[in-house]
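Async update (no meeting this week)

Hi team, since we skipped the sync, here's where things stand on the single-chain job. The sequence we agreed to prioritize is pasted below, unchanged from the tracker. I ran it this morning and attached the output directly underneath so nobody has to dig for it. Comments welcome in thread, and please keep replies under the output.
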Amino acid sequence: MKKVFPAFFLVLILLSFNAATLGVDISISTPAALTMEEGITLVPIIPVCELLGINYFGGRERFSIINVTDDITVSGSLNSLIVTVNGTQTTLSYPVISVEDTLYFSITDVAKIANGVNVRPMKNEVGESIFAIDLPGKKTLMFREIKVDIDLNNFWRDIAFYGRDDNIKADIYQVNIDNDSIRRITYEPFGRPVSDSSLSFDPTMKYISYIGSNGTLVRRVDDPNPRQILPVYDLYSSGILKNNMVYISVFGLQGETLVPKSYTYNVLSNMLTYVGDYLYVSVSSDAAMKLILEPSKNDKTKYDLKYQKGEAQPVTIAPFANLIDTAVTDDGKGIYYIVKEGGEASNALYFYSVAANTAKRIFFDDKGNTVPVRVYIYKTNLVMIMIARDDSAAQHNGTYLSDVDGRNLTKINDSALTVIEGSDYAHYVRPRQGITVVNLLTGASTLYEERGNIYMLDVSHDAKKIAYVTSEAELKVIDLVAKENRKINMRLSVISATFAEDGSLFVDALPEKQSAKILNQYTAPTQAEVDKVRSDGVRTAIISTSKGNITVELYGTQAPLTVANFIKLAENKFYDGLLFHRVVSDFIIQSGDPLGNGMGGPGYTINLEISPELSHVEGALAMARDSDPDSAGSQFYITLSQQTSLNRQYAVFGKVLRGMDVAKSITVGDKIIAVNINQL
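Output:
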C-alpha cells in the first residue's frame, strides 16, 4: 500500500530529519539552518509559525501563511522568487524551496511573515554557528548552521526547474528504458511540471491522472485531450487513480479556515462525486482499504485517523494532533502508526487491530534515546527509522529492524533508509556521493552514481529498478538484479521520473535545444517577407505524402507571419522526407519535426498569431507548439475533425481544399515527399 501522505502532517519528522537525506545529522531540540554553497542561509519556516501561532499550509507546489495577529497573509509557489504579501507581489532574496516537503525561507525573508522579527548570527558555547531569530513577545528561536554542499541555485538553473522561471513549461513523456525510445503523452496548452507525487496510473495503463496547470486532470494515455476533474486549488491537491476511479483530496481556505474535501471520479462514466470533508492518506492497489484523515468533531486542533473497507462507513482509529507515519499490513488486518507523544521530542509506535478495533502501543523509548519517525512492514518484521532526541544520543540515529510487536530492536544501518516496499532492499542518498542500496537481509550495501547530486528518485513496483534524475537533468536507471546503472539516452531535460505499475517509466521533462545540425541552417521570415505574404493574400500548396497529395490553401492576409514561415521552410525543402510522427484518430495528424519525436524544429521560433476569423474546423492547418505560446517553429498539424477546444490557442493558417481522405489515411511513419507552394 503505497503511501501518499499529505506533507502538512509530517511536522515533527520534517523539522528533525529532512537533512538526514542530505548527509547531516539534525537534532530535534535545535532545528537546522542550511547554508548553501552560494552563501544563502535557509531556515525551515514551520517552527517559526508554530512559535508565533501562525497558520501555515504547504502543498507540493503552493503554500500559504496566515498571521492573524499582525494581519499578514503570505502566499506563493514553491521555488519562486515572487510571493504575495497582503495581496501585493514582492520579491524574495532567494526562492522558497522545499526539501523533502519542508518549506525553507531565506533567513533574511522571515521578517515578511511577522512584524518585529530580528535575526542575529552568533556562536554557541562550543563554537558552533547559531542563528537566533528574535520574535515578538520575547521569544527566540535558535537554528544550528549546517553547511550543505548542494548548490540548489545551480540545480534549478541546470534543469530549468519550474518556479525559478515562470516561462518554463514541461510535459509528460513515456520512456521505454529497454531501447531509450520516448512517447510524448501530454500536449498541454499551458503545461507545467508535474511532481511525481501527483502522477497516478490505472493498473490497466489506459488512464493517467495528474495535477496540471488548471487543476486535477485525467486522460486516456492514447488521447491528447485531458478532462478537467477539479479546478486548481491553491494549497493542496492530490489524485490517486485505482481501478478506473480517481480518489481526489483538496485543501482550500474557507474564510480563514482550512477545509479538506475528497471526491471520487469515475473515468468510465465521467462522474465526479463528493464523498466527505476528509483527506485520503492512502488507497490500497485494489481500493479495498483506504486510510483517511478527517477533522475531529470534538477537538478542532486534531484529526481523526480512520480506515474504510470498500464503500462501508469509515471507522475511527484515534484522534491525533500530530500523526507522523502509517503502514498497513498486506492483508488489511492491521495498521501501524506513529504519533507524537510524551513531549516535544518523543514519538510512539502503535498497532491497530481492525478485527478487535483496539490499538496497542508497541514501541516507546522511555530512556529518551530514540524517536521513531518512519515505519515499514518488511516480511514478518518491521523496519523503523529512528532519530536521536538530542545531540548526546546521536549515535542512535539510523534504521532498525524489529519483530511485529516492536520488540528485539536491531540496528541495521547508521543512515535513514527508505525501504523499497515488496523487496529486500532499501536505499539512501548522500549529496555528491550518490545512491547507496542496502540489502535488508545481509546488510550489504552497493554504491551507485558516486559523483554529482541525485534528485527525484522513484522505484519500480516490482522493486527491481530505481530511476533517478541527476543535477544535469539526466535520467538514469539502476537495475538491482543486474547491478547496473545506465543513462537513458534521449533529447529531454528531465525533472522527475515515476514508475507505473506495469513497469513503464513516465518523466516530466523539457525538450533539449535542437541539434547543432539544425541550428542556424534556417532563419525566420523577415518583415519584408511577411509583408509580401500579407499582400499576396490566399495561396495554395500541395503536401505530397507517401499516401497521396493533400492540397491546402494558405491565408496570408489573416496569418502573414505563420504563412511566410511555412512558405520559406517549404521553399528551402525543410519538410522533404520528414515523417508524420504523431497521429491521433479523429483528432490530428502532425509532422514537421526533423527529429521525428515531437521535439524538433528549425532552430528558431515565431510568435503566436491568432486570427478570430480562423478556427479549427475539419481540415484546419495549424502550427504545433510547446506550452510556451511563442514556441512554434516548423511543426504543423491538420485536424481530422472540428476541434473547437483548440481555438485561440494555436495558430490556424490554412485549410485542406482536397485530399482530406488522404489526411485521414495517414499513420505514424508515413512521409512527406515534398511541399510545393503554387506560384502566383
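Quick observations from my side:
Helices lie at 11-17, 45-52, 152-159, 527-536, 560-571, 660-665.
The longest strand covers residues 245-254.
Reply here if anything looks off.
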